[in-house]
User: Fold this.
Amino acid sequence: MRRVDDDVSTHGTQATSTTGATAQPRAAVDLFARIATNERVQQWAAAKPHDLSPYFRTAESPAAPIMRMEGKDRVMLGSNNYLGLTGDPRVLEAARKAIDVYGSGLTGSRLLNGTIPLHLDLEREIAEWMGTEDAIVFATGNQANTGALSALLGPGDTVIADSGDHASILDGCILSKAKLRAFRHNRLEKLEKQLDRAAGDGGGVLVVVDGVFSMEGDIAPVPEVAELAKRYGARLMVDEAHGAGVLGARGAGTCELLGCEDQVDLRMGTFSKSLASAGGFIASSHEVVQYLRLQSRPYLFTASAVPAAVGAALAALRIVRSSEGPQLLSKVLDNAAYWHAGLTRLGLHVVPPTTLADGSTLITPIVPVLVGDDWKAFLLWKALWDAGAFVNVAVHPAVPPGGALLRTSVMATHEREDLDRALELFERVIKDFTAEHGPLPGPSH
Ligand SMILES: Cc1ncc(COP(=O)(O)O)c(C=O)c1O
Assistant:
């Protein structure tokens, strides 16, 4: 199937010399010249020789509270395996069974030879879980975002996104060629200003927010966002990558927790976090989902996820929806509150809990520690790594410039003794670190 027409060039020119001979046209610059001056490349080159880079470290055991990484057991505080299901025997057995029945790969698009009964079961059960008419399963969460946004929006439309939205949302917006209007993170008055402007843009309007923001761990005021979107005639999409399998009595995410599921047009989720696998979904009306099945290029022009991934996600979803689910959900949130309180006691600048409309507060399993400077974040990461803990480091563009943070996260399978051990380790490391490198942002440093 051909996707790009041959011989189509929008810039084809040929220079002719004064003698009439045709000069060889050449590119104005060498495309690769910018690589050497790239900020990320330079940062990597400076960090790598000192073993300071937190990136591409190798895991040598399944994601678990204590896991093997580069020859040492470390407390894992950097996994999105929120419910700890990647090691659950039922999930592993489902993955094995899917391989036995359907093989190691499907070698084709969902449209052609890449759909198996497990996809259909998973789509039906996701729709039941989310309370929507239908759901569509993509090979990755990233493709669920790019696939939905690029199919639903087009040139002439406007998409309004929170500045903290995930990169795959931004990429989907760019792919769609719709006009992008961003608003300051969680600022409803800025959203309203953009809705007002978008109403004059002349096309359809979609608002997209993360339910739980992936770096900050705070949540979007979805009911208020939905109310504004409705008032201005815009549609609303919520990315529940970090909300589904974590928040709400059914674990259906931020929209369930905040009681606004029926005010949201599209809910996106991934299997790469609580659902212990890889893949993603969009849950919506049957009309929208069927349109995506027929029109979404990132869905159509890629091979289907491997059967083991689909089988594992389905088994994990069934656990979340079983009588065991509520216990797992409350354990991960209890652990999050315990961990957040512990880091706060150490005097670290931890992103504060979200205050909900009813005045209660919520701490999600993502507990970021603000460091500020990129290099300081790398040095602190290395000190924690050497002491036996793994956390994630987020620097620009994942966070605003100067907003480097250690992104810590907890799982339902962390026991109190794991978290206490980690808190002792943090306390020791931070004491030595601040003595050598100066204070960290926060009340007591
Ligand atoms: C908010 C958010 N949306 C989408 C994605 C993409 O999901 P996946 O990694 O499963 O492709 C992520 C992944 O980190 C995410 O954090």
User: Anything to note?
Assistant: The chain has a mean pLDDT of 94. The chain has two domains: 56-82+325-437, 87-321. The radius of gyration is 24 Å. The CA atoms of residues 199 and 356 lie 29 Å apart.
